[in-house]
Amino acid sequence: MTLLRVDKLKEGMVVKGDVMAPSGRLVLPVGTKLEDKHVRLLKSWGVVEVEIEGGPHPESLPKLPPMTREAMTKGAGYLDHLYSLCGRGSPVLREMFRISTVRTMALIAEKGILAVPDIPHINDLDDVSCSESLDLSISQLVGKQTKLFSFSETYRQIVEVLRSPRSSSAHVAQVVEKDTSLSAKLLRIVNSAYYGFPSKIGSIQRAVTVLGGRELTTLAVGVTAIRYFSGLSQNVIDMDRFWRNSVACGVFARLLAGEKHLLSDSHFFLSGLLRDIGLLLLLGEYPDFMGKLLDRASSRKMSLPVCEREAFGFSHSFLGAALLSEWQVPPYLISTIKYKDNPLASDDVLESSILHVADVLSFAMGYGWSPIIPVPSLDQDAWDHLDLSHNVLDTLTARANRQISEILGSFIG
């Protein structure tokens, strides 16, 4: 079978089977000899790939801008480091690498060789082994977050109202409106490009009516989390980059859910936004140790969850899920986040698989919370569970890049 992305189709190629739009509409019948007008039609209907008659049509190498040999070498070395953990052994990973290559080389051509960082050699780092451990427990760490509960009094009141069978959107709105800062932030988010409502929503009560109490509650968790952890030391992790990565993961998760035509895809953004809350908790409690652990994971090309399990006995995903449970976040979000690194163990394999793939994409497309952290390993079974072609990534990442830049300020500005 020869599948080609639509942008690789040429005049004269012959369609091997009926081409259907994502909506199920027949776009081109079998045997159609392609013309330019057919390619334009395919793009307009959202078709991303077509099966073509004849022998294999190899994908051409990515078209790169002109640059010096030194710049090309620097870019290639950087890309090799980024993909050192996940590899390029499957069609989806090769497509991610192709898109990453185009992006990285374009960045170097525009901003120069310093646009990509140098990769530190392992001997340049302090001597901390990933096997070094700390005597910690999830319950101990979550229990120390008592300060958060007084900070999120408004959120707890929202949860109490939602639990009442007599509650209404007016009751939820009354609680939210007591916190003027939270109200302003939520209205800004609701009116952002993330939701894209045709007319402005001017009140919290209207926002609750349009979104529903559950979604507004989870949005409040996201805003609370960002505010609470905003004071972490920039010496350990760049918090702007961290939240940029979280927003990117949320956008990718929502778009992937959209590709699956799920009835509700908005909560996927929130799962991406909150997925690494456990990492922030560890960074806040043990900044020096975690800083060295992050450096070691990057330079040794090891998975961070593996290093965490060796050091603590658990990964930050499990810690984050326990913290979110204390925050009384809806259970479906907790399970999705808990198993983002092992999605097939989740109660909802599809939702955790979507978050897992979105997590990988957020790093592969240049939104990592560290510029030198390798792209996480991709669970091929999780990708297969999505039942998507790797050819969707080209248009999906282009859409994600636009959305990320449009909504970033609404959530962390």
TrEMBL record:
Highest classification ranks of the organism: Bacteria, Thermotogati, Synergistota, Synergistia, Synergistales
UniProt cross-references to Gene3D superfamilies, sorted A to Z: Hypothetical protein af1432 (1.10.3210.10)
Organism superkingdom: Bacteria
Designated name of the protein: HDOD domain-containing protein
Organism for this UniProt entry: Dethiosulfovibrio marinus
InterPro entries: HDOD, RNase_Y/CdgJ
Domain HDOD: from-to ranges: 148-343
UniProt cross-references to SUPFAM superfamilies, sorted A to Z: HD-domain/PDEase-like
